[in-house]
Amino acid sequence: MPQLRAAITGIHGYVPDYVLTNDELATMVETNDEWITSRTGIKERHILKGENQGTSVMATKAIEGLLEKTNTDPANIDLIICATVTPDLVFPATANIIANNIGAVNSFSYDLQAACSGFMYALNTGAKFIESGTYKKVVIIGADKMSSIVDYTDRTTCIIFGDGAGAVLLEPTEDENGIMDAILKSDGSGEKHLHQKAGGSRRPASTETLENKEHFVYQEGSAVFKFAVTNMADVSEEVMKRNNLTGDDISFLVPHQANKRIIDATARRMGVGEEKVMLNIQKYGNTTNGTIPLCLHDYENQLKKGDNLIFAAFGGGFTWGATWVKWAYDPK
Ligand code: UT7
User: Fold this and answer.
1) Count of Cβ atoms closer than 10 Å to residue 301 Cβ
2) Which residue in 12, 46, 96, 116 is the catalytic one?
3) What is the pTM of this model?
């Protein structure tokens, strides 16, 4: 019997309208366009403005576009997994809110949290539900409103992050395309370098946590940078080697968009030229769980059936991983 695989059969992304440029950031903190561009590759990022606007707002828009493009009835969705570090509420899961918004009345849904690697973890988790033969339509969404946990007086973090969402549809296939292989890793000793101090059960919100600005992203940038460069490249190389893939076999590297210098180093190690690297960090910054699906959304028209893609991510936890995907459809 042919092996049942999970194929990505549709992709859609959404970013909010408001564009926060490097020049505007330079009016808020001591920084400038030249520094941000040369150190990160970022020129602007999108921000979700307005009262009571959570991550689910962007996720819902991304999934609505996905359902329209793929002509999918929401009642036929079996499962929705939302990868996010900025859920609308501590509970219930943002995925439940999204399912209700789109009318996915027959699905079950839950959130998955693996920081910037969350979308990749969720993609592989969803693929297993398909490969088991139990489920036929699984939506994986990566979405974050990073502006809700960024301190806009801290120049070392506020320049990096942006808001956005991307969603893919996974369906079963028996041909040689789909999610082929993955290596996923984590190392909790990385906590000290990248975390949010308060708001969880260890340090619930209090006057003190608010005064100390403990509800924002804390990042030791250069330490994280070193781990990201090494680990993202290692794991990408490993997944290629064990599947006998060389740089020539790869159509695109689809990297988490945290810093252009990390992306360049990963591509060099894989032997992949820059023309084969998906890049949109200049427009969106680091949208955490949104980066990989937003890349696929932007490059969808350049992808052909059978193209070999390597997804690569690194984030808080630490978490990291690489996934080999054979693209399952031609441009429509
Ligand atoms: O997505 C999750 C995982 N996250 C990552 O992968 C992020 C990894 N880290 C990075 O991307 C980089 O470390 C940053 C972009 C965060 C920082 O770049 P860097 O080249 O590592 O800079 P640095 O932290 O070593 O700082 C160099 C200098 C410092 O000044 P001194 O001490 O040399 O005088 C900083 O104070 O640059 C200064 N600096 C800035 N200057 C202008 C830091 N931020 C800024 C800024 N504008 N926004």
Assistant:
1) 8
2) 116
3) 0.97
